[in-house]
Amino acid sequence: MLLQSLTYDERGWSSAIDGELDSEQTLVLVFGASRFGVEPAPFEELRSRLPKAHILGCSTAGEIHGSRVCDGSIAVAIVRFERVVLRTASATVRRPNNSFGAGLSIGRALMTPELRGVLVLSTGDGIGVNGSELVHGINEVIGGRAVVTGGLAGDGTRFEKTWVLHEGLPERELVVAVGLYGDNVRIGHGSKGGWDIFGLERVVTRSEGNVLYELDGRPALQLYKEYLGDRAVGLPATGLLFPLALRSDSDSDRKLVRTILAVDESRQSLTFAGDIPQGTLAQLMRANLDRLVEGASDAALMIERADSTGPALSIAISCVGRRLVLGERVEEETEAVLEGLPPHTTQIGFYSYGEISPHVDGACDLHNQTMTLTTISEV
Predict the structure, then answer these.
(1) Angle of helix 289-301 versus helix 330-340 axis, rounded to 10
(2) 30 partner at 20 to 30 Å CA-CA among 152, 280, 350, 362?
């Protein structure tokens, strides 16, 4: 496995694109600011230098390169495998109710007995895609038979236009994925939050998919605004500071975190990145900065160490809400991750609108407000 990482900004490429890495067993991951959706020249250059490679990527709410977090740039990793087989798939998703079918399509296109891992990237504005249903569709086919990770594209705190790279060029309303095949690939994963729960636990009394209408019989947006106080004028962005923790019932210890992507004043509703099932229990969360950084470190420590001494790639996907809360301390979480990984690890990634990662028991789910990690190496 050969690996190059580089960045692009207003000064151009940080180093020359290594065309010698081009092959049908080369994976190119590209995470860039949303403006590059209409300024695709850097992507075209990657395609011209690496015409055989599988090029995937998406827009971000911040680019991760090593321990640095940047805006207005592109972070790239080029990985040439020796014995790992790659296969890509894509599916259109224009409305939330298309999401499950898109997941099924991705799963069916990639699933074989040799599949070991899938990295999936989806447009992520919350209006066109339901991340939970997308993951459920993938799980319907793949289940826990391969590691499935990834995330929903970002657009800063604007929540307007996101894109993914399909055949090396940016497109909207699309899900893309790459499958990694064979016994020579090693894939690790970890996911951790670090938020504190506060306030009353309430019952979701009315919801449809990823749209929440009522909590304890009260309009959800009205209730949310009461908790946010003066910060309510900044919705939906300020809602990232107060995500929801969900659990199926009072006996369950498993919590999923959901974060706001849009609000509807006329319906007094909130749209989240993933499903808010009716009848579940919901409780607000708020940030503890030290615990967020500890959560990122814990995510790295969750990863099973691969039996490889060669280079490894870490793909860090963290939530835009974490970035807003951490502020100037944001690079503490990317530094904490790298400190917990082997010294020969190269890291890129992005801040997202939703993170896809397995639970400890194997099947993946959509998470919010977490640091999720995927490590890839070859033996």
Answers:
(1) 20
(2) 362
Backbone angles phi, psi at 24, to 5 degrees: -75, -10
DSSP string, 107-160: HHHH--TTEEEEEEEE---SSS--HHHHHHHHHHHHTTSSEEEEEE--BTBT-S
Looking at the DSSP bridge assignments, the partners of residue 32 are: 59, 74
Sequence-distant (≥ 6) Cβ neighbours of residue 188 within 8 angstroms: 303, 304, 305, 306, 373, 374, 375
Query: ∠ at Cα 247 (242, 250), nearest 5°?
Result: 120
Measure the CA–CA gap between 317 and 242, rounded to whole angstroms: 19
Q: Are 17 and 6 in contact (CB under 8 A)?
A: yes
pLDDT digits (tens, 9 = 90+) for 275-321: 899 999 999 888 788 888 988 888 888 887 655 568 999 999 998 88
Q: What is the rounded average pLDDT for all residues in the chain?
A: 91
Q: Which helix (H) or strand (E) holds 351?
A: strand 345-352
The residues, ordered by sequence, that sit 6+ positions from 331 with a Cβ below 8 Å of its Cβ are 67, 68, 69
Q: Which structure tokens are listed for 245?
A: 């923790």
pLDDT tens readout for residues 330-351: 999 999 999 999 888 999 999 9
Residue 21 backbone dihedrals phi, psi, to 5 degrees: -85, -5
Q: What is the CA radius of gyration of the chain?
A: 19
Where in the chain are the domains?
Answer: 2-192+290-378, 196-286
